Amino acid sequence: MRVAVIVFPGSNCDRDMHHVLTDVFKLESQLVWHTDNLPNNIDAIVLPGGFSYGDRLRAGVIAAHSPVIAEVKKMAEKGMPILGVCNGFQILTESGLLPGALLKNTSLSYICKWTEIIVKNNKTPFTNRFKPNQRIPIAIANGEGRYYADKKTLESLKKNNQIVFAYAEDINGATMKIAGICNKEGNVVGMMPHPERSAEQILNPSDAKPASLIFESLLKTLGVTA
Amino acid sequence: MSLTPQESEYLEKKIGRKPNHVETQIVAAEWSEHCSYKSSKKHLKILPRQGKRVISGPGYDSGVLDVGDGYVVTVHIESHNHPSAVEPYGGAATGVGGVIRDILSAGTRPIAILDGLRFGDIEKDMHARWLFKNAVRGIADYGNCLGIPTIGGEIEFDKCFTNYALVDVASVGFGKKERLIQNRADKGDFVVLLGGSTGRDGVGGSQFASDKLESENRSAVQIPDPFIEKLVIEAILDARNQNCIKAMKDLGGGGLSCAISETADALSVGIDLDLSLVHKREQNMSPTELMISESQERMLVITSHEKLETLKKICEKFHVPCSVIGRITDDKMMEVRSEKNIIAKLPSDVVANAPLLDRPSSVPKYLKNISSVEKPKTPKNLSQTILKMLSNPNIASKHWVYTQYDHEVGIRTVVKPGNDASVLRLDNGKFLSVKIDGNSKHCYVNPRQGVIGCFDEACRNVICTGATPIGMVDHLQFGNPEDPQIFWTFKESVEGITEYAKYFEIPCVGGKVSLYNETDNGPIKPTPLIGILGLIESKPLIPKKAEKNDLVVMVGLTKDELGGSEYYEYIHDIIGGKCPTVDMSSSKANQAAVLEVIPQDLVKSVHDCSKGGVGVAISETCIKNEIGCNVLLNKIPSENLRHDELLFSESHSRFLLIVDPSKIKKVKSILEKRGVQNEIIGKFSGRNITFKDKTKLVASVRVDKAQEKWLNSLGSLVGHG
Fold it and tell me: Considering only residues 56 to 75 of chain A, which have any Cβ-Cβ distance to chain B shorter than 8 Å?
């Protein structure tokens, strides 16, 4: 089973994600530079966090137009599990793979802290090991992390069960406290919080078990018995 | 600014002719105080630099320490004071960028940033607030984009920094010993400039930083671009892995002048440089501008004929501009050309080694006036005093600052900011604890004891996480060294650091001197900063929650040492008195005792007792754990002090141990066996932080009220929630 972690110029959580996938959850993962072709035999794709292209113009917008994203889109259509974390989520919305947008936090500041999110959809490839409404202690770190969508989009998100994670408390002014969403089909998930920073007990000030279920869900999805 | 008449004469004698204009400018940049250390160098020689973990090599811009299993950590500290005082956002950001490249120069990946910030009185001074907010934003925007966690630091506000700013940045790197850059060069090797393009920003920056801050010389401030820096980091590390780098140097103060002359001098070679080949962002730049521009995000790399193409390919992959600007020669000269025109030709050792100065020094007059002060009256309501101390910007929580910094990226941060010291996990299963400490108030009252105290405090902070100090960096910040009274404080400081370093056998592995920190208001207080790296072989002490009936054990003696304390200065507006003095042997014993207790899982957490004294240390512990505590002041090991003195004395070498009652016997027996002063002074319970003298109530504050003051006062001052 192989997971491709796409690396853009300015990505900076790529090695962290690679470490957690490979060393902690024993998933074979590979860093893929954005100009290289996607390897043939992959089963999932992760777009990691960071500052692709230095957040120039708008977070994620330049990376969203790189050729590798066209390939990611093809894989998305085929139903491959795709996870975008933080900047990866921003790239997914900018590329149109996920609806809505991520705006500057209401504090206008970068926010790095520990918080809790609640699982709202436990049917995605990254949440199928959770109980409904399970809480996850998790790290957030972003400046443009406030999810926004218009009314019509929000209604369709609700109707199609596309809200995957919500913050337990209002942390940055996100619409409906949304922390993560998926596409209609459920295989493409974007989230602002960082599961790769939260799934090892030594790093997580409260409980790392819930965040580790995000990766264990992927293991289950890919048919690897955890 | 240019060369002094004596320096011009010395230069002429050395090169046997009059230098031309460009040559004079090159030498003036390199012989600036900032680059040459001409006032300080003679005195810095006394610092102990040897140690069993120290790896030294030619031309390293950072200290290198062996942490076993084939791994090294690197560390460096720098400041960006003058630029930050003029343009805090760009000044602070480029301060981060510069020190990061020093870590990179050794061939190690930067894994942490710490910063020490100092401004005027932000409660009253709006300009200080503006400087503070923008410096923090500059550090955040730069460090966050690079993906290097900012894991700690310290902040101090004092009137002596009015209209000024001290922005100190330390960085830590990690890597394999075998991948350290060897720094060698052979005739015919290529000199490659890679990274950001060269422009007119930061022209003459190092001379600007070597003078009193008089004018707002914005063109001397460099412009930050963290995205290019990030690409440079990845390109350099890739090039390192592919053995493309024979030698490397960051371009910082003095720009090309400094990088070329120092590289040639350190490697005992010559460099033939063609300025027409430098990639530029502006047109018609003069040779002088090109030589002394301090445009950021640039690295100088020496590579061989065989590896040049690989290096170019790597740069292409990461979209990093690079140009081959010269060749290594064997004549030890730096020859600067523009195509065929020779613009400057100087012996590199002459350029790289300014004539050193013997500055006179004399005991400052002010010390006499402040050495003894009349004791203030004990405030009637010490509960109110405690609340006021907790809302003092120097003491209040700094979470408004560190939540703006990504302190988790890299997934190494196991003890987070907001604790005594942060701890990083290393790839060999060990842990690294890092802290920087300074205290301008103590150092003003007693320059020597003040810096010894900073050293002791930084050591205590890493010890609180279970780490043994293995190396130190210092950053010495003073006013105009031409003033003998200021120079005396500098010398005292260096001697104090040396004394402590020798006694505790902690080698100095790097440092920096920043002089001429003055405005029209006068010089800053002496502000040396000490950075400590501590190593944990097995596991760090990650603080556990204090619960009802847990006990507080105090280790160390509380003395009548209120000079320079936050209590004297913030509550009573008194500057002076006797500042805390470290008793080296008892400090060593206390440290050893605590380091024996921690690995045996006998304590829930350990805290350093410093700024604001035991009153503040206990309150902070209660606030963080959301539980009250009953403290008996009469139990505190002390020399017959008043209640306010017991609460707020900042005596060094003290620790607070939080212990589960079932483990107290074992803890006490270790402390007794070690013969260190210790006493159970309090017990956690309830919702009040209460201080009693036997049965008499001295002060009591509710935890939630204390929490509100401590958590919010800094953020509310700067306008964000």
Answer: 56
Question: Is there a contact between B335 and B270 (Cβ–Cβ < 8 Å)?
Answer: yes
Residue that is written with structure tokens 């605590």 in the block: B594
A8-35 mean pLDDT = 96
Q: What is the pTM of this model?
A: 0.95
**Interface-testing mutation among A5, A107, A111, A112, with chain B (most B C-beta atoms within 10 A):** A112
For all residues of chain B together, what is the average pLDDT?
95
Residue A13 is among the residues annotated as catalytic for this protein: no
3-state SS class at B674: helix
Closest partner CB to A16 (pick from B146, B227, B409): B409
Is B31 inside a domain boundary? Answer: no
CB A3 within 8 A of CB A38: no
Whether B317 and chain A come into contact, CB under 8 Å, resolves to: yes
This complex has an ipTM of: 0.96
In this structure, the strands spanning A44-47 and A82-85 are parallel
- Mutation choice for A interface testing from B100, B409, B424, B427 by most A CBs within 10 A: B409
Contact between B463 and B337 under an 8 Å Cβ cutoff? The reply is no
Q: Which residues pair with B152 in a beta bridge?
A: B114
**pLDDT of the residue at B223:** 82
The CATH number for B582's domain is: 3.90.650.10
Query: Is residue B565 within 8 Å of B453, Cβ to Cβ?
Result: no
Cβ–Cβ below 8 Å for B721 and A107? yes
Q: What is the pLDDT of residue B721?
A: 37
Burial B376-385 (b: 16+ CB within 10 A, else e): eeebeebbeb
CB contact under 8 A, A12 and B413: no
Separation between Cα atoms, residue A135 and residue A117, nearest integer Å: 6
Q: Do B144 and A143 touch (CB under 8 A)?
A: yes
Residue B636 within any structural domain of the chain: yes
Q: Is B475 a catalytic residue?
A: no
Cα B365 to the center of its chain, rounded Å:
29
B144-153 pLDDT tens trace: 999 999 999 9
Alpha carbons A86 and A110: distance in angstroms, whole number: 12
Q: Which domain holds residue B610?
A: 542-714
Per the structure, the count of domains in chain B is 1
CATH number for the domain that contains residue A180: 3.40.50.880
Determine, yes or no, domain membership for A226: no
| pLDDT given at position B56 | 82
Of residues A12, A111, A203, nearest to B414 (C-beta): A203
Cβ of A202 and B231 within 8 Å? no
Contacts of B521 (CB under 8 A, 6+ apart): B160, B162, B163
pLDDT tens digit string along B113-123?
999 999 999 99
